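Q: For a teaching handout, I want to show students what a protein-ligand complex looks like in token form. Below are the inputs, and the small molecule is protoporphyrin IX containing FE. Please produce the holo structure.
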Amino acid sequence: MNKLRVSRILNQLRCKSPFDGDCLPSRVSFFGWGRPSLPFPHLWNYKEPIRILDGYFHNVEHLSQSGKHNRYFEVPALPTVLVTRDPAVIKPILFATGDKPGQFDRDTMPTDGIARATGEDSMLYANGPLWRAQKKLAAPSFGRSNLFQPETLGEFEQTFRHTAMQRLKRLHGIQSESGEAVTRVELEPEINVVMLEMLVNNFFGGKVSEDDLWDKYVPSLRLLIDHMVNDTIEAHWLRPFKVFRKSSERLMAAQKDFEQLTDIALAGRQTGAGMWARFKSDAPDEALRSNIRVFLAGAMEATSSLTAWTLSHLARSPEWQENVYKEVYAIDVYEPESLKNATVLHQVLEETLRLTPSLYFLPRKSTVDTWIDTTDERKLFMPKDTHVLLDVWHANRCEDFWGKAVSGYRADIFAPERWDVLKDKDYSAKNLQHFGFGFGPRTCPGVSLGRLEVALAVGAFVKLFKFKAVNDSVGAYAGVSTKPDDGVLVDLELRDEFR
Ligand code: HEM
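A: Here is the structure, written as tokens, with protoporphyrin IX containing FE included.
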């Protein structure tokens, strides 16, 4: 053990903070009276990650501003964990994540289950030069400058819209056949199918039938996505018993289905189907597989999450549902111009991403001892190998940053009106961000595609149906991404013009 390491462990035993500067995080103790959970994931709490993060901000009102929003946890001989909900700290860390010397990595510890399912060389999991190479290879296909060319967007928009309408016909059929004015439906399974179909058939130019999506591919991907979370934690806690952990037959079948789906998405490359027509690279198919797996599973998960939350919020907000309806009623084709003018829909999506971000924390790791300049001109020193959880879920719900004094509305409620207040106060993404698509070099490359898919699905749905939430309130299920924990259970009614 080197001298530096020994002195660090001694400092940890003395409870001496490893941080320095004028933005000092406060310490979270191992046991805390009345706290919702222990401050680390273990076999009994890992299915409730938001509760673990809640624990970091339990009973912090008496602390200084820096200590209240920046918290750290240490176990002697283990690396430090910093959880921050402070946007002034989140933003510079996101900005300084990349492949340059001394920059932050994306922390792979919380995502190694994802890597085992998709491959370690994907753009999502890799760091350093490998990440840079993967980004160069894969990201341009999703970029705004490629996707939002009128011709390209027009082509995708048409096929995406067709898909959304076909799936809505199914719901229309359920509704008409029931003979009742109102039908009770769980929307999340329907959303998963539309989102996967848009990706595989429209974006990658594949040809998967609706039955196969329902019966085979969506259930397999759902099983694998849930398994990714379990696998991450179980692999850490049950590593000594690895020999006893065997994959179930269902899981192995799901992995086979995932490979088949990846083959289907890749097949379009030969014929220049879908987005492949614009893909310029001579990399072998094998080099693309892990990214395609990430795009299929990750993008289905993230776009389903945003669609599910948006419909869930609108189902509890008849006023905003009608506002969206009035706007989309006249839109038949979502062209760049009509998308730009759909300001209400945009506002609703922003508020949804703020209150219920699909990715609830963004993991980072410091690669050297480093100083951070916060956006409000404080300084924070952080030691090498600190695991940093950028807790956007709690940042976006914190009254100090998004509450009444700032936006005119409580931070923890769905209030798209706040965006008008913020606009009047001249707030822009420059000084207030929800980080729903991340920020900086590792921001989401699928932001334009994701927004387009979700806007189309939500717009088409609101145009056809009125819907009301069955439950007055809803909690968050958090796995790879967050989802409403009632599966978006609604009472559905066809709008008069479609009866
Ligand atoms: C509306 C849906 C989506 C949301 C809310 C979303 C959100 C995010 C966020 C927050 C990040 C940053 C993670 C971090 O900083 O650690 C991210 C990264 C990423 N997203 Fe998305 N995403 C969405 C759709 C998509 C789509 C459609 C694709 C691709 C088809 C995609 C592919 C990726 C990839 C590959 C990364 C990693 C980028 C890198 O590390 O360089 N996402 N996404």
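A: Two things your students might notice: The domain at 136-357+436-499 is CATH 1.10.630.10 (Cytochrome p450). The longest strand covers residues 489-494.
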